[in-house]
Amino acid sequence: IVMTQTPLSLSVTPGQPASISCKSSQSLLYSDGKTYLYWSLQKPGQPPQLLIYEVSNRFSGVPDRFSGSGSGTDFTLKISRVEAEDVGVYYCMQSVQLPYTFGQGTKLEIK
Amino acid sequence: EVQLVESGGGLIQPGGSLRLSCAASGFTVSGDHMNWVRQAPGKGLEWVSIIYIGGTTHYADSVKGRFTISRDNSKNTLYLQMNSLRAEDTALYYCARGVTNWGQGTLVTVSS
What are the Cα distances from residue B24, in Å, to A27, B75, B85, B87, B106? Predict the structure, then answer.
């Protein structure tokens, strides 16, 4: 399954919203009714950290300014008000089918 | 607290072998699906291998037949045996508990 993210880079003023799109080449809806789409953030020099699981569920400790939405093959990560600590590369990932695959990454910078 | 600590990386010549380890704490590796994911320098994330709770394993086509994932329940440790290493295997290798928790990674450099 090919995961395609847009845009590949984003420059945002603190306090402004940001949005990242992720499209998959096949539906990520599994037979159990769950959709296995995740969003992670890799801050500079750090491993990825999970933000959102199964499309729209925030992982433990993730601020509520992060939200995920979508279904089937089209998904979106939104940051309602970008903060300086949000810089890094955002990846979508699917685990509905092996091999697990990631998007190319979207680099978020602060203006 | 969940922790994953990788080790075993280093500089190795093409054709050589390395075994990566991932020591887990705060949970049991046998109780979760465990993944290895790698990141080539300046590149994105690439899934490498998974071992399911039941012990079934799967590999990316790029490493199939050369890499072997395993776990030692008594040591609560995940492993990745890497044979016939190639220059394109050069990367930071992360172990991950499912997709939720990641280690800091261990760097593998394949070069003569």
Answer: 33, 9, 25, 29, 14
